[in-house]
């Protein structure tokens, strides 16, 4: 079995100037915006007590994003909020004035007109952008990398977007989206990653993801747990990880949770940067073959990278079997624990937690993280069965073990 690689973060610290992107007041605006949607409900935070006992941990809590807006993944939180903030800026308003009702009103549509939002996606982000554009009376154009499944393409086409599968990888699709937007009147790139010179919209996307972190935080309070001691968060470009890490660092500045960032070993750009130790981002290119399609991104988000290197404890790079194991564990809970339908990019944190607690070869990592009966671990299952056929092949037929 291919091994998990991990590295403790020893990168030099910076001024930490990007942490303010995830300031609690900004996240509150995102939360209020999402709450204004008629489709909004808090997604469940599954408390897996039987699992925690068996693993030898105080508590395991899994945020179940398969319930998000009926879209089976968390990503829509970012695309929708960034579009609202863009429209707010163009119309000279504060985003807090732009609730769902206002954004969909005739008056605002007449004032703002119509933009075309361009993006690249493995599936979930593009579906979120297409969904939000459709709801808000805007246009969306989506580029998908080779290897993307037809199910994921069709889910985007259903939202009245224009979408195509290209012969190139995700990072090349990002460049295609940017080039096409530049040639289109009222063309706007809504990309879920930042690079030098493109930081405003990605920072709004990260704030949108903050809604999920804030909900989990409140739900832990409701369970009487309060601060999680550990958080496992998966990463592609790292926008999500930067958002979650940023939120909890701002929320608990004096006693922050220990954060582990988890990547697919086929696309482990953040892990690679950590191993290099100099604080510079590293890139992974090529086809990046992995079942974790949402994590198959090789170029780090520059805003997130700054947050992550200042705060994260450990970066881990996991082979596909780790995620497949997490999917099966979450789908077959201990009696009394809720089930979580968790897809390939959603379950890798669960799989890694299992390996750390149950496999001798990872006992050193258990020590480094201080995971024990006192720990309360927060995981994010960021997608459900976004590709239902593949989900069944893995969970029912045992593929990828
Ligand atoms: C389900 C899922 N989880 C996690 C991620 C990782 O997010 P990021 O690329 O911001 O690191 C993605 C990205 O598409 C995703 O679709």
Write the layout of secondary structure elements.
Elements: E1 5-8, H1 24-35, E2 45-47, H2 49-55, E3 59-64, H3 76-90, H4 100-103, H5 106-112, E4 116-120, H6 124-135, E5 139-144, H7 150-157, E6 162-165, H8 170-183, E7 187-189, H9 200-222, E8 230-234, H10 239-251, E9 258-264, H11 269-276, H12 302-311, E10 314-318, H13 320-331, H14 348-358, H15 363-369, E11 376-381, H16 388-395
Parallel strand pairs: 3-11, 4-5, 4-7, 5-6, 8-9, 8-11, 9-10
Antiparallel strand pairs: 1-10, 2-3
Helix pairs in contact: 1-9, 3-6, 3-9, 6-7, 9-10, 10-12, 13-14
This protein binds pyridoxal-5'-phosphate.
Residues 73, 75, 122, 124-125, 192, 234-241, 294-295, 297, 345-346, 382-383 line the site of pyridoxal-5'-phosphate.
Written description of the protein model:
The protein is an alpha/beta fold and about 400 residues long. Helices cover about 45% and strands about 15% of the residues. It has 16 helices and eleven strands. A seven-stranded mixed β-sheet has the order 1-10-9-8-11-3-2, with helices on both faces. A four-stranded parallel β-sheet has the order 6-5-4-7, with helices on both faces. Strand 5 (about 140-145), helix 7 (about 150-155) and strand 6 (about 160-165) form a beta-alpha-beta unit. Helix 1 packs across helix 9, helix 3 (about 75-90) packs across helix 6 and helix 13 packs across helix 14. Bound molecules: pyridoxal-5'-phosphate. The site of pyridoxal-5'-phosphate has 21 residues, from helix 6 and helix 10.
């Amino acid at each position: 079995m291919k091994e998990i690689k991990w590295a403790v973060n020893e990168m030099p610290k910076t001024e930490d100037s990007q942490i303010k992107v995830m300031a609690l007041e900004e996240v509150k605006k995102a939360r209020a915006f999402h709450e204004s949607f008629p489709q909004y409900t808090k997604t469940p935070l599954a408390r897996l007590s039987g699992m925690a006992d068996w693993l030898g941990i105080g508590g395991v809590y899994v945020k179940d994003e398969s319930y998000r807006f009926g879209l089976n993944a968390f990503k829509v939180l970012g695309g929708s909020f960034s579009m609202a903030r863009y429209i707010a800026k163009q119309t000279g308003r504060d985003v807090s004035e732009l609730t769902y009702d206002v954004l969909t009103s005739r008056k605002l549509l007449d004032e703002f007109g119509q933009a075309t939002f361009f993006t690249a996606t493995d599936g979930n982000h593009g579906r979120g952008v297409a969904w939000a554009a459709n709801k808000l009376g805007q246009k969306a154009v989506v580029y998908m990398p080779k290897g993307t499944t037809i199910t994921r393409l069709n889910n985007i086409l259903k939202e009245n977007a224009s979408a195509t599968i290209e012969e190139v990888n995700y990072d090349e699709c990002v460049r295609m989206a940017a080039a096409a937007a530049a040639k289109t009147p009222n063309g706007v790139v809504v990309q879920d990653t930042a690079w030098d010179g493109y930081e405003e919209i990605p920072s709004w996307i990260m704030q949108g993801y903050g809604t999920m972190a804030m909900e989990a935080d409140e739900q832990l309070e409701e369970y009487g747990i309060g601060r999680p001691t550990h958080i496992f968060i998966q990463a592609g470009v790292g926008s999500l990880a930067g958002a979650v890490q940023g939120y909890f660092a701002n929320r608990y500045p004096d006693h922050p949770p220990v954060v582990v960032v988890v990547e697919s070993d086929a696309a482990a750009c953040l892990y690679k940067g950590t191993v290099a130790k100099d604080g510079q981002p590293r890139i992974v290119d090529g086809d990046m073959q992995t079942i974790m399609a949402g994590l198959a991104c090789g170029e780090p988000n520059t805003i997130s990278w700054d947050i992550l290197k200042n705060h994260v404890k450990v970066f881990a790079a996991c082979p596909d079997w780790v995620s497949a194991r997490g999917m099966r564990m979450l789908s077959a809970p201990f009696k009394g624990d809720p089930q979580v339908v968790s897809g390939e990019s959603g379950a890798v944190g669960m799989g890694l937690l299992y390996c750390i607690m149950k496999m001798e070869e990872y006992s050193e990592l258990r020590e480094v993280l201080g995971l024990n009966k006192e720990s309360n671990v927060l995981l994010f299952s960021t997608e459900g069965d976004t590709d239902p056929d593949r989900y069944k092949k893995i969970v029912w037929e045992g593929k990828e073990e």
